[in-house]
Amino acid sequence: MNLHAPKGIDVENWFIECYRKYKGHPMWILLGLYKGNYNKFFMAVVFFFIKHCPVWVLPIITANIINDITSGAPDAYQHIFIEAIIMVVLIALNIPTNYMYTRYKSLATRYAETGLRKALVRKLQQLSISYHKETQSGRLQSKIMRDVEAVETLSTQMFLSILNIALNIIIALAVTISKSMVVFVFFLLTTPIAALTMVFFRNVMRRRNTEFRKEMEETSAKVMEMVELIPVTRAHALEEEEVHKMSGQLFAVAEKGYKLDIIQSLFGSVGWAIFQVFQVVCLAFTGVLALRAAIQPGDITLYQSYFSTIVSQVSSLMSLIPTIAKGIESVNSIGEVLLEEDVEHNEGKKKLAGVHGDFCFENVKFHYNNTDKNVLNDLNLTVHQGETIALVGESGAGKSTILNLVIGFNFATDGKVLVDGEDISRIDLRSYRKHLAVVPQTSILFSGTIRDNITYGIENVSEEQLQEVVKAANLTDLIESLPKGLDTMVGEHGGKLSGGQRQRISIARALIRNPQVIVLDEATSALDSISEKLIQEALNNLTKGRTTFIVAHRLSTIRDADKIAVIADGHCVEYGTFEELMALKGEFYQMKSIQS
């Protein structure tokens, strides 16, 4: 049997709906996650009952044998033989039924585990770029891996381990009540003590688990940052400072973990001691009953075994509380992502069959969520199809924000951004971005081959197309110098390549998409002068007939742009060709003079 989603169920959306519907009720959420797999849980319960029969039957058979021996029954040999055969058969059945139990249990829980991770991955792809900028990636990684694993463990404990505990207790009490009401009442006296112990520790353990989980997320995020900064750290001989900084974080985790361990240990030891005392009392109590002939001598073993079962099962239930508390905290942690509403909504919006490349910024204002200060103020800008417009200005002037509005990462707080006359906030951005290529300031590569990185998201690329792109991006010499050429692995984040090489691969990735709109955010900033010149020539050829937005600090690289917009304090303060702006002798002229 293969792992697959139940027919007719949209797994990711169903999981999100479960969290939204049962928000604040982790147990209902957990139950909802298994929709379509309840039959597997039912079969797991059936096989669990069969496989566990020897544990319940053995005390009865043991008591019967002892009673036959002590009573001197004439057919004792026959009874012993029959009861031994029954036990052997039940024990033999344990092997196949245990396999079937594990099979059905695992199919259900692993499906839910995989489905939850898929739901998280899909939601992360839908969440806005602003959300990702404000959330540490290490925290998200922890939710996908650690928290989902904790939820899977919680599922097993809640639906199967607790079932095991419940069945053991119910059967032990049922057999006991059928034989002696006095002993049954004695057994019941232990239940309130167990309940009081669990209630006392539950709230403390929930708080400790929340603190520990948040500290672990913080540590995961800081470890990722530390790893990414290792080249910078090494270059500035800051190893000891980084170790000292991380040590503080690690000790903070250790302290939270220590407090959690202590409360868990105290919880377990108190419960164990209480029930062991009662087990001794049970032995003495049933012994007195046997002396008074209220029960048979063999029944002492029966009651002691069942009382031991109840003790161990209640103790197991108590020991599950830390796992359950941790799992519930993880359910809530995953919900923080699945219920996040800062998403990019595309459903129901107009889909674009094609993009010409006309853009119009009409009185655009924009500010980020965490501030009321506008980054853009009444920006008006018109870019016609096929034009190359360069955005220049000081850092923080709003250039990158304009690019984010063009890409659709952000929407205008006030005013409109029109694409071919359509308000960009009202179109399906997925259909729009198929005609868009972006080369960011910092090249982003994944740990695959050069070929994979260039053709990312593009299928059926011919070798001829690929070679043309390689040539246009000035990668020919690099590819020819590598033993495996285009099939050379670039390493994590392209770590085996230089900054200029990584940037050229990013440019090649943009070129192969044959876009109608190109966004270049200082795309040549990481290149040496020779490569920059060659790339600039290639980009000039590429951008003919395509609308292109360029942000560049090196003003010499934008001489051939159709128009240059000087951005200051969120406004377009100068607009024109290179020659026109130089003739104005305004802000652009001053900036160019400083760089000359």
The class by helix and strand makeup works out as alpha/beta
Task: Assign the CATH architecture of the largest domain.
Answer: Up-down Bundle
CATH topology of the largest domain: ABC transporter transmembrane region fold
Please count the beta strands (DSSP E, at least 2 residues each).
Answer: 10
Please provide a written account of the structure.
GO terms for molecular function: ATP binding. Residues 57-326 form the ABC transmembrane type-1 domain. Pfam families: ABC_membrane, ABC_tran. By secondary structure, the chain is an alpha/beta fold. The protein folds into 2 domains: 11-338, ABC transporter type 1, transmembrane domain (ABC transporter transmembrane region fold), CATH 1.20.1560; 359-595, P-loop containing nucleotide triphosphate hydrolases (Rossmann fold, 3-Layer(aba) Sandwich). It has helices spanning 11-21, 26-32, 38-51, 53-71, 76-126, 129-134, 137-179, 181-188, 190-228, 230-235, 239-291, 297-338, 399-407, 429-433, 450-454, 463-472, 476-481, 499-511, 529-542, 578-584, 587-595; strands spanning 359-366, 376-383, 388-392, 414-419, 422-423, 436-439, 517-521, 547-551, 563-568, 571-576. The strands form 2 sheets. Strands 6-7-8-3-9-10 form a 6-stranded mixed beta sheet, with helices on both faces. A 4-stranded antiparallel beta sheet has the order 2-1-4-5, covered by helices on one side. It is elongated and about 120 Å long.
